[in-house]
Amino acid sequence: MPKGAAPGNPNAAKHGLASERQIRPAAARQRRNLLRQFGTRSRDLSPAARAYLNLLARTTAKIELADAWLAEHGMIDEHGEVAPIMRVYVSLTNSARLLTQRLEQELRTAGEDGEDLSAYLARAYGGEGDS
């Protein structure tokens, strides 16, 4: 990192976990991937499910940035100390786990009587399954 780089300058970035410039595009990519995995669109989700989706996307984007930093710099520094980013990393991975569970629960409760999500969305919001 160049000495004296001002905040906001990309040369000043360390890991990017506090940089909206780095988080936003990574979160958008994560969000698209998650929606593709669910086989749905954001507008088809409940407000609560959208909120969990957005939080999960941002959290996984931060994990992605941390992973990239760790791959470049390593988990242990030259003095044998664990990199400070690891304190945040553990918290982020735990948050992602909990958000995944909450989002999954929200998506399951969207359907009635065990109805799968795609059938519920088609019934509730119209679609191919409408009669």
Q: How do the strands and helices of this protein lay out in sequence?
A:
Layout: H1 20-38, H2 47-73, H3 85-110, H4 117-125
Helix pairs in contact: 1-2, 2-3
Could you describe the 3D structure shown?
- Helix 1 (20-38) crosses helix 2 and helix 2 packs antiparallel against helix 3 (85-110).
- The chain has four helices and no strands.
- Helices cover 62% and strands 0% of the residues.
- It has one domain.
- It has helices spanning 20-38, 47-73, 85-110, 117-125.
- The chain is elongated.
- The model is unreliable at 1-5 and 8-13 (pLDDT under 50).
- With 131 residues, the protein is mainly α.
Compact description:
This protein is mainly alpha-helical. It is 62% helix and 0% strand. It is elongated.
Rounded average pLDDT: 82
| Shape annotation | elongated
* N-to-C order of helices and strands: HHHH
Low-confidence stretches: 1-5, 8-13
Strand content: under 5%
Characterize the largest beta sheet: strand count, sense, and whether it forms a barrel.
none
Global structural class? mainly alpha
> What is the tally of helical segments?
4
Helix content: 55-70%
Radius of gyration (Å): 19 Å
Number of domains: 1
Number of strands: 0
Between the first and last Cα atoms, what is the distance in angstroms?
Answer: 61 Å
